[in-house]
Amino acid sequence: TLRVDTAGSGPEIADSMYGVFFEDINRAADGGLYAELVQNRSFEYDPADNGGYTGLTSWTPSGAAQVVDDAERLNERNRRYLRLDLTGSGGHGVTNAGYNTGIPLTRGDKYDFSVWARTSNAAGTPLTIRLTDAGGAVLARPTTLTVRGDRWTKYTATLRADSTSATGRLRITATGSGTVRLDMVSLFPDETFLNRPNGLRKDLAEKIAALEPGFVRFPGGCLVNTGSHYGYEAPNWERRRSYQWKDTIGPVEERATNANFWGYNQSYGLGYFEYFQFSEDIGAMPLPVVPALVTGCGENRVTDDPALLQRHIQDALDLIEFANGPATSPWGAKRAAMGHPAPFGLTHIGVGNEENLPDAFHERFLRFRAAIAERYPEITVISNSGPDDTGPVFDRHWQLNRASGVDMVDEHYYNDPRWFLENNDRYDSYDRSGPKVFLGEYASRDNRFANALAEASFMTGLERNADVVELAAYAPLLANVDYVQWRPDMIWFDNHRSWGSASYEVQKLFMTNVGDSVVPSRASGTPALTAPITGAIGLSTWATSAAYDDVSVTSEDGTALFADDFSAGADRWTHSSGRGTWSVQDGAYVQADAGAQDTMVTAGDPSWSDYTLRAKATKRAG
Length: 622
Ligand code: AHR
Description:
- The protein is α/β, with parallel strands linked by helices.
- It is 20% helix and 28% strand.
- The chain contains 13 helices and 32 strands.
- The strands form 8 sheets. The protein has an 8-stranded parallel beta barrel, surrounded by 5 helices. Strands 3, 6, 7, 9, 10 and 12 form a 6-stranded antiparallel sheet that branches. The chain has a 5-stranded antiparallel sheet with strand order 4-5-13-8-11, with no helix packed on it.
- A hairpin with a 4-residue loop joins β27 and β28 (560-564).
- The radius of gyration is 25 Å and the shape is globular.
- Bound molecules: alpha-L-arabinofuranose.
- Alpha-L-arabinofuranose (AHR) binds next to loops.
């Protein structure tokens, strides 16, 4: 029985309440939302990004093609290029295989090719550009352009596909003599979302836009803070997984690529300007997250480097100026130079992600907040609460956040559907005078209809508490089926198709039907939950496995890998493999050695990306 108090008044619901969380995981950016079709376009892939990479990953050279890093480079931030010494007979060139299965081509569609090039041949060097299938059959009329002069210059051409293929290739051949140098070899579909230059893949962007999200949280998750303890300026060009927003703006050929936390290279072609632009294009509030020098995501590292901390704080201030400052301000001018003189209207900024060390994090968070409040008092600075929905780390975060009068706290949790059903009332008892909640990441662990239904049920509890829960985002947003590191996900895609999960439909239902205010209601006679908790808890278990017992893990083919029933209270269970160690103690995840969580979750090593562990557990009594 549902009793609705039509005369009563509940909390108002902000239009921006439901949003999306974008992170470059599962190839969500390069090979996903970012429409670039050429993989490793600047020849910067490096074993430090991923053990399997070289400067020629995704490229097949012919003749004397080699990747070099020398003084003739395109610029200091784009250091490697392809050198072709046109000697002897035979063709000299290079073929790109795109991402995963190949370059998707659609009959009749146009593709915009560009390359930076220079030649030592005073007579010029003709370059022939072809779109082919995997076997070399030509799929578009070839085009030839002539490189002239020994200074780096950008050349462009447009090709029209005569056939459709999901396994296309881009082939470039050079003729003549001398040395020709190539860099930033690029191919975009002529049509991108709203036809923005350096734009986004249309079908994916349209699916996100169709949600009508209230905000876009970017650029991650774990991607944000891990590695922030390293400096990020030359002369140290080591790849260290450190995401710095300043690396991601300006001309794309000057954005130094870097290792992504999730085990592949990130080109930053989809960078902070593009995130702000996309948010504006879809009517969503931009919500960037910056690192706080205390890492989470399995690293538990605190950086005691006041100068580096100060620089990160300054970066946060500069970011606000980049978003909101007048075009005459130093960082506002950079935004204007990229084609957006008007401010983007930033109102919220997140500091940190899932820190396991609340005290160390909070100390640094307060430094960020003070600096931002002094210069931009109108900006809401969001703190966080660690990786779990409950427990000592979570409690300590909240204690500190309350004591400091924090405006808003980011919560994250990935749980089984039953948890979502059982916790509909989670926010009913939250302190109305304390910090507001930004539910920055949540999902029930699978992509079945029942998961989506449990999420929908839970969202009614979020909405009922809209006076406390101001923002909420399902996570993660995107997954390339050929590069899955984390599931469930909201939108799935391959190189040429995309589809929403059942959870996508639930999110869309809520986002496109945001009410004005809650009408109080009460249900009675609802059936009790009786089903036992069993089933796959998946690779993301490490983040939220507290309260589980009787753990067993098998490979997908059913081979038992390890098990423990935790019969003794203080039982400790450790699994070690060549790829790292992870431990469970008394039913709770304890610790993984460096890299182990990466290994389990990110599958940066290609031999792991297809390898699914199934973990079964029963919930501890109580
Ligand atoms: O959404 C995937 C990951 O889950 C995020 O990077 C991290 O914040 C969380 O643990």
